[in-house]
Write a structure and sequence with these properties.
The protein is of the alpha+beta class. The chain contains 4 helices and 11 strands. The protein has one domain: q2cbj1_9rhob like domain (Jelly Rolls, Sandwich), CATH 2.60.120.
Length: about 180
């Protein structure tokens, strides 16, 4: 039987959310995937789902979190993005698997295996995994984004940093995290 930890596991990372938000606020968020060739897709530049890739800089809060993820999860390949879902809007059910047709069109794109999301606001909406149900809010969590998931409409903006892990699966990352915690 599926359980919450098959989809989402809250992490105990050390970070200053105010500093993290300051760093993220420097980036210009734009509608997600505006050049999506599938123009009928909800993910073709929605005005309610804003996105910006974040570049790594040494001695930043983002850099510190990346180092923690390397140590705690055993990843060596992480990229970051800032995301904002506008209030009273939803994100339809989807998964983050890289389809073969997309891999062929964007050959330098690596497949995301799992992600860590850190929320930047206090008022946080839930996430829905159709095969499990709607899960309560979280501040910082490892997510199994290869499973179908969506985000229901919520009363305020949802603003977060997504750390996209490109080299290990959700299961591997979770096992590494739990083993690190036991052996600490």
């Amino acid at each position: 039987m599926k359980q919450k930890s098959d989809y989402l596991y809250e992490l105990d990372l050390q970070y200053n959310v105010s500093k993290l938000q300051e760093e993220v606020d420097e980036w210009n968020l734009e509608p997600y995937f505006e050049d999506n060739p599938n123009t009928d897709s909800w993910f073709a530049g929605p005005e309610t789902w804003l996105y910006a890739d974040i570049q790594t800089k040494a001695n930043t809060e983002i850099d510190s979190i990346c180092e923690q993820l390397k140590e705690l999860l055993g990843t060596n390949d992480v990229v970051f993005a800032a995301m904002r879902q506008k209030a009273n809007t939803n994100v339809p059910v989807h998964n983050d698997k890289l389809l073969k047709e997309w891999a062929d069109m964007y050959p330098n794109t690596k497949s995301i295996k799992c992600a860590v999301n850190i929320q930047l606001t206090d008022n946080i909406g839930p996430i829905n995994f159709p095969s499990l149900g709607t899960l309560e809010t979280y501040k910082c969590a490892l997510l199994n984004i290869l499973e179908d998931h969506g985000v229901p409409a919520f009363e305020s903006d949802r603003y977060f940093v997504k750390f996209k892990i490109l080299d290990i699966s959700y299961k591997e990352a979770l096992e590494n995290y739990l083993n690190f915690r036991v052996n600490k």
